[in-house]
Amino acid sequence: MDVSEDQSIWHYRQFAEFVAILQKRELWFSRLDCLRDPFEGRPAGYQSAFHTLADAHTRKGCVSCWTIDEEESELMWYAFAPGFGAAIRSTKSKLKASFEPPAADKIKINSVTYEIDSSRGAPECYAFVKRRGFKREQELRLFIPYEYEYDQGGGIKEPTYSGKAVPVDLNSLMNEVWVPPNSPDWFVGVVTVELEKYGFGGIPVKRRS
Q1: CB-CB neighbours of 202 under 10 Å
Q2: Rounded to an integer, what distance in angstroms lies between the CA atom of residue 121 and that of residue 51?
Q3: Which of 3, 191, 169 is CA-nearest to residue 87?
Q4: In 3D, which of 134, 160, 170 has the Cα closest to residue 27?
């Protein structure tokens, strides 16, 4: 799926996670093999030597997941921000521009394809493939490949981290911040205060009426 530079994208977070983004000015990239789906980054028929390498390459890499949509998604609220949460609305171009070197040089951005197959390709391509059951997520994914480290026996070392925090320019990134449609007025005020507290008071807070 081709995604235009001005396409709207969304990042749904629970409230505490959203505040952490504001506090630290960082986006969290989770290791693929620490996500809920055990098939993340894993092609079908990966028993071959090539697919074993692909498995190691992708599943030790880290991702940040966004939803491609012009409107907010009720499904995404329930899946990633149950109760009181917040969603950052941005565009693909703003997302790309919000990272600086050296992180910006490592991050690969692509839409997710919802069809697992075992066709040969660059190992990193499997980081952008999920099972068809996740198709409604309409995901745009940011991927940081694993930088191999080897043990004394020449094997690939298992990384000890569950993900990476990557600095991001939030003023460049955030178009709007949305709260769930069933949020009370006081929660809109809480999110507004948090934005002002961390220097983002110019970012509008919206809620579907």
Answers
A1: 9
A2: 10
A3: 191
A4: 170
pLDDT tens, residue by residue, 123-166: 677 788 888 888 999 999 999 988 777 777 777 777 788 999 99
Whether residue 194 contacts residue 22, with contact meaning beta carbons closer than 8 Å, is answered with yes
* Residue 136: both structure tokens together: 């409604």
Which residues have C-beta within 8 Å of that of residue 133, sequence separation ≥ 6?
none
Q: Which pTM was predicted?
A: 0.88
Q: How far apart are CA 153 and CA 162, in angstroms?
A: 24
Separation CA 150–CA 88 (nearest Å): 38
Q: Which helix (H) or strand (E) holds 191?
A: helix 185-197
Question: Dihedral (C-alpha) 177, 183, 189, 193: value to the nearest 10 degrees?
Answer: -50
Interatomic CA distance for residues 75 and 156, integer angstroms: 38
Please state at what angle helix 15-24 crosses helix 185-197, rounded to 10 degrees.
20
Q: Is 92 left (phi over 0), alpha (psi -120 to 50) or beta?
A: alpha
CA distance 121 to 60: 18
User: Which sign does the torsion angle of CA 30, 39, 151, 48 carry?
Assistant: negative
Burial state string for 49-59 with b = 16 or more CB within 10 A and e = fewer than 16 = eebeebbbbbb
